[in-house]
Amino acid sequence: MARRQSSKVPNKDEPKMADQLLKTVLRVPRLWLGLMLILIVLSMLDIVPSTGEIPLVIRRFHVEATTGLFLALIWLPSLVRLFAYAGGAVKTPVAEVSSKGLRAALLHVADNDSLGLLIERASRVEVQSTGTRREQAQELRQELEEVYAARVPGTDARTKLEELARQYDERRAALPPGTARTIELDAVVGGMLAIVSAASLSSVEVTGYLQSDDGGLRLVGLVAVMASGDVRHFSLVLAMIEISQSAFEQYYAVLAAQRVAPYLSTEELRKLRAAVLRQRDYDPAKHQYIAPGSTRWRLTDRLLDMISERV
Prior knowledge:
- The protein is built from 15 helices and 4 strands.
- The chain has helices at about 15-25, 30-45, 65-75, 75-85, 100-110, 110-130, 130-150, 155-175, 180-200, 205-210, 215-230, 235-240, 245-260, 265-280, 295-310; strands at about 45-50, 55-60, 90, 95-100.
- The strands form 2 sheets. It has a two-stranded antiparallel ribbon with strand order 1-2. It has a two-stranded antiparallel sheet with strand order 3-4.
- Helix 10 (about 205-210) packs across helix 11 (about 215-230) and helix 12 (about 235-240) runs parallel beside helix 14.
């Protein structure tokens, strides 16, 4: 019996379509690539203060576990895009691999600092974005937080928060100002974000943290407000915007204010706007520290837009 010929007619455009699809899937966003390369370099440098003419000295250059993680994460956008085209999963001879499962496998080898930094960065994108991008950032942040929180039993969440507060104080005191220190401190904030809800802090406890003389504990208070959106702490958050102990603290005070802004009264929104505008009238001599073009300037742009929609 003669073999039946296939009725399918080859599409001469298929190779071009496949090539275009491959280019689309494998494209890595430049900003993401740049961020990962910076993190890779910083993870390999051991920089210490110096008493000589050069304030900082590279003590050694070595590869850490986090270096491999950041190298792998370069391709995370491509992997997510690939699984999106594949309907969320890819079948292999062994098993079906989902995008969430693959990310979990990659993150399983990450240490807490690496996870904390990724959580903080995802949170930052979430705050600054809208629509689909915001939803994607929120989903990623929640997944990262689940991985981090799984390493900390619920009963130990408060103890871990206090440990992170000490880490913040120690790193801030030991490291010179600059990008490297900011990255280290952001990693601590990400850890706080991951477990603060599990700590179930009362309003009285959060107030105590916000009023503390300890910078790390004040940061715990701000992170708690960011997680809960509790307007009862608005006056303390407002004071930390106006009289902040550092640019880092002021940044997170603005984030906390942005979190509670939808629930504030008209009068409270006016007070918040006035405080932000005073700080944007940059003059360090008057303790007004939000300089044009800075990260906090751009963050307060977003906050002022939110306020203007209601006042």
